[in-house]
Structure formats: C-alpha cells, structure tokens
Design goal:
The protein is an all-alpha fold. The chain is built from one helix and no strands. The chain is elongated, with a radius of gyration of 49 Å.
Amino acid sequence: MDPNTKIVLDEMQQRFVDEMKKQFDVLDSKWTQQFTDAENHKEERVLALEQSVEAAATAFETWRPQIDSAVEDLKLEVTKLNKHLDRALLDRSTDSRLLQPTVSATARPSAGFTADGSSGHRHEHNHRDHEFGIVFTHTHIPVKGTSPPLFTPPSSKLAVIPDDSLM
C-alpha cells in the first residue's frame, strides 16, 4: 500500500474513532442525566410521602383526645340512660310486665254494639284460614267451591305426533 494512502486511511480511521467517542460521550451524558433526573424525582416523591405521613400522624394525634373525650361522654350518657331505665322499671314494679295488658276489642262498648264479627246478620261468613302460626307456608281455603286439582291428567283426545328429525 502506498504510504500516503496509509496516512489518509489512518487519519480517516482516527476521525471515525474520535467521532464515535464523541457520540458515545453525548449519549452517555444523556443517559446519565436521565438516570439522575429519575433518581431526583423518586427522592422528591419519597420525601413528599414521608411529609404527608408525618402530617397525617400529627392530625390523628391532635384528633385522638377529642374522640376519646367524645367516647367517654357517650359512655356517661349510656350509663345515665341505664340508670333512668332501671329507675323506671323499679317504679313500675307493681306490674311485672314491661307493657300494659292488652284489652280485647270484643269487650262490650258503652253504645251496646260489638266490635268484632257479623253478629246479628243472616249468617256468619268465614273465609279465613283456620291454620295460623305457619311461618313459611301460606295456604288459603277457597272462598266458594273446591280447590282445583294439583295435577290434571292429559286428555285422551290429544294425539302424539312423532318427530321425524329424531329418527
């Protein structure tokens, strides 16, 4: 190879290497800046979270005595209510029941008319169930006539037509 060509090629190679180093340095500085920015942003967020946790803890600490005093006030009020209820029950100790006895609606009123039933009419109507106290089942006796049958047998006049698609 010619010495001048070799010098030119060495010079070109040196420029290429220098340019590549320069490009790598630029990219390296960009990546370093990106990582530094990300690290700073992360530290700022962590610091902000720590400050908000400290602020919340301070707020809860100032809030707690108020809540504790409110709970104590409620306990005192409940104790007072229990004492009043006990006193009221002791005052009514002549009657052992909490509620007053019930009075029947069939008791004879002062006007002479009864309050229940159809007394004095042609005949008594009783369309109500005789079964009371059933919790989950509710049956009714029909007002007139008999109950419809639960199962109606098929009529003999119906014809069964076989389906050809099944064969």
